[in-house]
Amino acid sequence: MSGKWKTYKFKCHILLFNIFWKSARSDMKKIIYPIVMVFLGTTLYAQGEKEVGMDNMWGAQSHNEELSDAPRGKLFSDGNYAMFIHWGLYAQLANEWNDTTYYGIGEWIMHKNLAGIPVDEYKEIAKSFNPVNFDADAIVSLAKNAGMKYIIITSKHHDGFAMFHSKVSKFNIVDATPLGRDPMKELAEACKKQGLGFGFYYSQNQDWTAPGGAGGPDKDANGNVVSFEQYFESKCLPQVTEITTQYGDIVLVWFDTPGRIPKKNVEQLVAEVRKNQPNALVSGRVGHGMGDYQTFGDMEIPFSNIDGMWETVDVTNDSWGYAWYDKNWKSPKLILENLISTVARGGTYMLNIGPKGDGSIPEEAAYTLTTAGEWLKKYPQVVYAADPSPWDHKLSWGDVTRKGNKLFLSVYDWPDNGRLYLPGLQTEILHANLLGEKTVEKLNYSTENGWTILDIPCENSEKFISVIELELKDSFKVDPTLGLDPDHTLELSTHFAEAINCNKEKKKWMEKFGEWKHIMQVDQWQKDGFVSWELDVFEPAYYMVRLKYAGTERTVWKITSDEGKFIQNQQNASHVYHSYDMGWLKIDKAGKHHIQVSLIDGDFEKTSLESLEIYKIH
Ligand code: H79
After folding, report:
1. For the chain, what are the domain ranges?
2. Biggest alpha carbon distance in the chain?
3. Closest ligand 1 atom to the C-alpha of 513?
4. CB hemisphere CA count around 494 (13 angstroms)
């Protein structure tokens, strides 16, 4: 996006906001102000104004291919599903401060873009923080029933409050609250007892209450200026020593938002973890590319398989830390889909819960995790120690994981006409079985035009996701071309397209809960520019083509098949990505085709094409 465009959009938002603000009633303002501020903040990020800043926050990502063989690399290969816990003083506020509710991530409530709570007032909250309902055994049992293999909990978030007994800062749960216990000790012991791994999140750069921490006060209580180095030496490093020496063996230290932390400090942190916990992983967000693995943008599952060790972190609802209003829970089915697709791309999935201020777990979080866990108990082979999909990407109806010569087809979207179409499998099948809890149903299958057609029951055997196991005669051979079957919509991201005389790039923006959204998109169209996808069509037919794009004015698109048929049509455009039906495209022959999209008229610079969706007209 050009600088001029960014400035223009931002000015528009400010202008609209001012007009609205002058006409709003004062009681309304109290409620609406925080929402609008987060929205403006989000818009700024979306427009890229502060992208560099936030990128600096995450720091260079790490990628270490050899690690999978080291003992600490086993964590990801064997147990690729974990529980993340965000719990701190902020849970007590639950995103409400002075009778005002703030809509955003709960652990950020103190920040000036949300409630802007002064340091002294925030510290006072500790006096009434008494999480008597914290039950370490119950949390570990929940993680276990959910099918998770280890737990990572916030030992200190950006607010600087230590949820463990720290000798270097009195601002900790044992010394500053009425609770007077160290819940991290209890959790570490419960994990050990129940056979789960245990590890800590630690925010190493930001500390909003400690003098010298990033985002914190510049001066101490005596008015002396405190440097980051002083903060690092007096609080950060000693606390990392504490969490890596006082809680037995830990599996991972999950550092976050390195920002501008100097390289030598990161070296010290990594050395400290290595010294005290040689088998613990260090997260990719430690900074300066010095972590053991890569963490994708929060809640991001990549389009194609990725080698090496990496993880996706996700949230059971929207906010990491507990927020009283946040009821946007992910269903058990969605959790399973995210988990399976992350494993199918080669990654590890860590899913967050936010306990309440009294230490208890929100009921709905327990429900959705346990229910997903019941499914996992029936089909553990689909996920644990499973290898990624030979297809390299999601399929139209679900995803595939693998162990040896066995493929597990997880069908998210079960067709009701008795046939499931699998494109591109070139190895002979020995057995095809529909798996059930205690039963296995043998399936008939046939091949046609390089596709495997499985005869399946019309009704889904399983409430959430049915699993078909294919045992192959030999190691798999697969043509990964994107397959268009007669029963499902195929969504073709521009990630999979070749872009000629136009600009293909990743766009990212930050949503109100602080999560990055990433898409691939194409803009800056030249007159002869086009994008082109290769796809394998099972059946000649009429197909509806939809385009998803954002733009500034009406657009005229041309969609052409390599058989010479085309659609040319005008549609509107809006500044948010939206799907528009473009028309029917006739495909005369089954098999491989190229479909091209070009912009005929409209804003050639800024019209941004995200994807093409195509489905058969019945
Ligand atoms: O611990 C979780 C988040 O608190 C942390 N990483 C995950 C694992 C994180 N640190 N920084 N961010 C996420 C980016 C957050 C940015 C935002 Fe905001 C906070 C967007 C909305 C609230 C500040 C305030 C920027 C816009 C409004």
Report:
1. 3-43, 73-249+297-378, 398-479, 490-616
2. 81
3. 21
4. 25
Minimal-distance CA residue to ligand 1 atom 26: 41
Can you tell me the distance from the alpha carbon of 567 to that of 586, in angstroms, rounded to the nearest whole number? 9
Residue type, 223: G
Q: How far is the CA of 108 from the centre of ligand 1 (A)?
A: 7
Q: Given strand 466-472, what is the order of strands in its sheet?
A: 398-403, 406-411, 466-472, 429-435, 440-442
Sign of the four-CA dihedral 257, 262, 263, 264 = negative
Q: What is the number of the ligand 1 atom nearest to the C-alpha of 320?
A: 2
Cα–Cα nearest to 494, from 471, 512, 520: 520
- The matching CATH number, chosen from 2.60.120.260, 3.20.20.70, 2.170.150.20, 3.90.1310.10, for 490-616 is 2.60.120.260
Topology agreement, domain 398-479 and domain 490-616: no
User: Whose Cα sits closest to atom 14 in ligand 1?
Assistant: 514
4: helix, strand or coil: helix
DSSP 96-147: EETTEE--S-GGGTTSTTTT---HHHHHHGGGG---TT--HHHHHHHHHHHT
Q: What is the block-wise mean pLDDT of the chain (618 residues), using blocks of 10 residues?
A: 32 33 35 34 29 46 59 80 98 98 95 96 98 98 98 98 98 97 98 97 98 97 97 98 98 96 98 97 95 84 94 95 97 98 96 98 98 97 96 98 97 96 97 89 96 94 93 96 97 98 91 77 96 98 98 94 97 94 98 98 96 98
The answer to whether the beta carbons of residues 533 and 595 sit under 8 Å apart is yes
- Tell me the CATH architecture of domain 398-479: Sandwich (2.60)
Distance, in Å, from the CA atom of 393 to the CA atom of 389, rounded to the nearest integer, reads 7
CATH of domain 73-249+297-378: 3.20.20.80
Cα of 514 from ligand 1 centre, angstroms = 4
Distances (CA, A) of 149 to 140, 314, 446: 10, 16, 39
What are the φ/ψ torsions at residue 370 (nearest 5 degrees)? -65, -40
The helix (run of H) or strand (run of E) holding residue 549 is strand 541-550
What span, in angstroms and rounded, lies between the C-alpha atoms of 568 and 224? 69
